[in-house]
Design goal:
Blueprint (H helix, E strand, L loop, with lengths): L1 H14 L3 E4 L3 E2 L7 E7 L4 E9 L4 E5 L10 E6 L7 E6 L14 E8 L2 E9 L17 E7 L17 E7 L1 E4 L1 H9 L2 E3 L6 E5 L4 E8 L4 E5 L5 E3 L6 E9 L4 E8 L1
Antiparallel strand pairs: 1-3, 1-12, 2-3, 3-4, 4-9, 5-6, 5-10, 6-7, 8-9, 10-11, 13-14, 14-17, 15-16, 15-18, 18-19
Protein name: DOMON domain-containing protein
InterPro entries: DBH-like, DOH_DOMON, DOMON_domain, Secre_tail
Keywords: Signal
């Protein structure tokens, strides 16, 4: 039973960190003043899009479309300071102003203007039932292509943008990262090193530990230790795999696996 509990808690600990993956800031080419940054979060099941564009005119982003798409198909968001709502969820249907989707799925989290640049932070579910929306399931979305149109001259009236000279394109890959909260947790995490170990094992954040119980893989406790400093001797342990049940000073438990050479 103890072995089963230890395995379950170790697995829970490994899966406890929420994962995100991001493209980082990606400028479009040719440069037309629009950049996009997509971040997918598998815990919230949300995508966050940080979209930057010129503050003196409308601009948009075609999502999941590549260079040469010709405005013929694709998902799109368009921003104009004078429309209601200012951000509209649309879809390309040909050489015309993209019509609005029946479902407006993007939400503006923030809208900030600094000088000539407007920065929008937008969110949406990774996947939904809207056939016009580009779906971004976390597990299989490893890259994304997009296109950013804007008019040549300052205007907030959404209209045809004036041809390919006013559109930039990009394809970006996602890189997996830990979320901000997870990084803070990781910095406080109990870590055993080196691992595998021969004679002694060092403990990161040892000052947080009250006591340590060491178990064999069969669930038998082989030792209880009250650490004195940042190392524990494992010289007398036989070669194999051991599980450390670590009681912290705040009363919580941490579980770590050690390979003894």
């Amino acid at each position: 039973m103890k072995k089963t509990v230890l395995f379950s808690l170790l697995l829970t600990g490994f899966l406890g960190f929420s994962q995100q993956k991001t493209t980082g800031d990606v400028p479009l080419s040719p440069n037309n003043g629009i950049t996009a940054n997509f971040t997918l979060d598998n815990t919230t099941s949300k995508v966050t899009l940080i979209l930057k564009g010129p503050s003196d005119r409308w601009f948009g982003l075609g999502i999941g479309v590549e260079a040469g798409f010709g405005m013929s198909s694709g998902d799109a968001v368009v921003y104009s300071a004078v429309t209601t709502p200012k951000l509209t969820d649309r879809n390309f249907t040909g050489f015309m102003q993209p019509p609005l989707d029946s479902s407006q799925d993007w939400t503006i989290v923030s809208d900030v203007v600094s000088g000539s640049v407007r920065t929008l932070t937008l969110t949406r579910a990774l996947t939904n039932s809207d056939p016009n929306d580009y779906q971004m399931p976390y597990a299989t979305t490893n890259s994304i292509s997009f296109a950013g149109p804007r008019p040549a001259n300052a205007t907030t009236t959404v209209a045809p943008h004036g041809g390919t000279a006013n559109v930039g394109y990009a394809t970006a890959s996602f890189t997996t990262v830990l979320g901000v909260n997870d990084t803070a947790v990781a910095n406080k995490k109990i870590v055993l090193y080196p691992n595998p170990a021969k004679e002694t094992v060092n403990i990161k954040n040892a000052d947080r530990i009250k006591s340590v119980d060491i178990y064999e893989t069969g669930g038998r406790k082989v030792r209880s230790v009250v650490p004195d400093g940042e190392t524990i001797s494992v010289r007398d342990l036989k070669s194999g795999i051991y599980y450390f049940e670590i009681t912290l000073k705040d009363g919580s438990l941490s579980y770590e696996k050690l390979i003894k050479e």
